[in-house]
Amino acid sequence: MVKFKHILAFMQILWEQEEIAHQAAHIIHAILKARSLRITEIAAQMRGGLAANYKAIQRFLAKVDPREILWRLYQTQAPFVIGDVTEIPRPQARRTPYVGFLKDGKTRGFWLLMLATSFRGRALPFAFLTYSSSTIAQESSSRNLYHYTAIESIKELVGDTPLVFDREFSYLDFLKYLSASGLRFVIRLHLRSNPPEFVDRYGEKVALNIMPGEKRVIPNVLYKGEVKVHLVGVWRQGFKEPLWLMTNVDPRRALEIYRARMKIEESFRDLKSLLGLDRVMNKKQVYMEKMVALLLIAYAVGMLMGEVVRDALYGGTAQGQRKWRCYSGLFILLKQKPRLDPLCLRQLVSSALESFAALVHPPPVRTLV
């Protein structure tokens, strides 16, 4: 269903040079067909010989940096920006310098910190960086510095747009950095292993007590006595524990934002299960990141095309609506592979292209370093 000419039209929006747009289209098209980040598997889906295609991909990576182009997918009117980390296991990569050990201390792999905006209930990536226990050791660095680097690269771009993070980012130094930078944030609290401490303006400890079915707002408290935040908690029926957020925006708005943010986990699942994000095999980190950028571009194109197809197939009836809620557009596009009338398909692709052109951020572009 996904044809090369369709992918080329998307790439011509991203790349102004026709030759590069064609080369990128061949690779992106092959990624969607292979559903993998292994260069050999991608090359096998391209026209021509495997060896020639493999070399063509390598030449493309040597002269083009897709990470720069990915920045163009930032939505300037986005109500919030999502930041989250996922683990990429590489159990066999014993001699790959950028691969370290994941949180369990046993599995080899690295972390990918992705920055995205929300699009129809999914996360639309526009930047990322990667790090591991190995790169941290090599650079005499820390996880925190990677987090700061990510935010430093986007803070002028996002302006007053709230940044939304999960529990991994609920540590004091990160909050101090965000506050000093004048950024707005919504961060989920980590309540289990290391419960956070808050005090009110009188220096009294704030207890995060809440009952099932209850919502509670606690304004103007100090996180560990240093950073001023608002707290909002909710314990929804059927959940084992409450959700608590700290923020410097309106607490009720923060709760709405965080609920919308939770879809990024579904995007990570789609990236791994449908596109093979965790099958990356490059030896050098720079080429690994370029391949990841290409995959994220492929994901964005597939998601936009899949969403218009999902609406066309399942948007009209009550029975269709149930299926509409069950399947992502990318799943429908890559797994169900529906057969559509050529005229209908052409109209749907045109609609997806209009959406894509409207959200693409104009150059100049940057890369996370």
How is the topology of this model organized?
Layout: H1 4-14, H2 18-34, H3 39-44, H4 50-63, H5 66-70, E1 81-89, E2 100-101, E3 108-119, E4 122-131, H6 133-138, H7 143-158, E5 163-165, H8 172-180, E6 185-188, E7 198-199, E8 215-223, E9 227-234, E10 243-247, H9 251-261, H10 264-273, H11 285-314, H12 318-326, H13 329-336, H14 342-359
Parallel strand pairs: 1-5, 5-6
Antiparallel strand pairs: 1-3, 2-3, 3-4, 6-10, 7-8, 8-9, 9-10
Q: How many H/I helical runs?
A: 14
Indicate the structural class: alpha+beta
Tell me the strand percentage band. 15-25%
Please describe the biggest sheet, giving its number of strands, its sense, and whether it closes into a barrel.
10 strands, mixed
Please, could you describe this protein's structure?
The chain has 14 helices and ten strands. It has 369 residues and is of the alpha+beta class. It has two domains: 1-162 and 249-369, no CATH class; 186-247, no CATH class. Strands 1, 2, 3, 4, 5, 6, 7, 8, 9 and 10 form a ten-stranded mixed β-sheet that branches. It is globular and about 70 Å long. Mean pLDDT is 91; it is low at 364-369.
Short description:
With 369 residues, this protein is an alpha+beta fold.
Record keyword descriptors for this entry.
369 residues, 10-stranded mixed beta sheet, disordered C terminus
